[in-house]
Amino acid sequence: xxxxxxxxxxxxxxxxxxxxxxxxxxxxxxxxxxxxxxxxxxxxxxxxxxxxxxxxxxxxxxxxxxxxxxxxxxxxxxxxxxxxxxxxxxxxxxxxxxxxxxxxxxxxxxxxxxxxxxxxxxxxxxxxxxxxxxxxxxxxxxxxxxxxxxxxxxxxxxxxxxxxxxxxxxxxxxxxxxxxxxxxxxxxxxxxxxxxxxxxxxxxxxxxxxxxxxxxxxxxxxxxxxxxxxxxxxxxxxxxxxxxxxxxxxxxxxxxxxxxxxxxxxxxxxxxxxxxxxxxxxxxxxxxxxxxxxxxxxxxxxxxxxxxxxxxxxxxxxxxxxxxxxxxxxxxxxxxxxxxxxxxxxxxxxxxxxxxxxxxxxxxxxxxxxxxx
Length: 373
Fold this sequence. Notes:
The protein has 3 domains: 2-98, NAD(P)-binding Rossmann-like Domain (Rossmann fold), CATH 3.40.50; 121-332, Rossmann fold (3-Layer(aba) Sandwich); 342-373, no CATH class. The protein is an alpha/beta fold. The protein is 23% helix and 25% strand. It has helices at 11-18, 49-53, 71-80, 92-97, 105-112, 162-169, 187-194, 210-213, 231-241, 258-261, 269-274, 300-308, and strands at residues 2-7, 25-31, 40-41, 44-47, 63-66, 88-90, 119-120, 122-124, 127-128, 133-134, 152-156, 173-178, 199-202, 216-222, 242-253, 281-283, 296-298, 312-320, 325-332. Helix 7 links the parallel strand 12 and strand 13.
């Protein structure tokens, strides 16, 4: 029986406790940096870092499991306190012990090495990761994406890569695309245990372009647009990397769900319903669903107009998850048009932008001023 200290008393710790391998491990105490920490958590004492450092590894406990997204920082803190490196592991490693009989030693070590999983999905037959966001298989249920043999797909916001994995299983050549480095999430582990050849690009969707990243037949854009200050720029870039006729699958938070998750919209369900056919979006800082990175939250009608104005036709549009999320399937039918009128070249001689000559090149001549008639 392995004796554990678990560093953390938040959501990660509670999630680990829900699937804790009690048959092989015992929790001796929890550790928490918060000066206002409780005396006990799930019936075990909660220690401060200094008190934990007074314990002796091998005598008082066997392992320290870090239950936090800030694994690297806490691991360094534990090392500075004198806790031996070989005694420290991510708490997520405990989750996979329940499926050890389904894994090789190499697979178990690979999965257990990931400090924090975002997605909860079946990464190998019978083996589910301990993420906080459930994989949604219905997002790939459209008949046009049932068979992806020979097609190129881009998975924007890939994180641990459950959709990358599924599209690969359907025959696609997939590129995961995320601001998270693949080594900071479970993406690399997902690739290795499944022997996938999927690429990963660590970049911002604002920088997505066909010259650097190539062109694709399918783009998935799940759970991303409402985290962006410039969602229409993202959709324009998606249009640019899609082949003519290519598909974009888009899913995310919509205003119809606001009365349930945002204090500012509590009690306004009737208002939201009356405005359903009016394309509108809610801009918020640090409030929607209590998440600081939520910015633009459109209603489903507005989300559809975003896609229409970005060179797509809507094939499917629906409220899902009880109206809290929107889902759209769209096909590229044209490139993104200019945002406003630009006068034809014949007009250039009558007036130019400052710093340009009449031929359109940069120059030092002052702009010509045309008086009204």
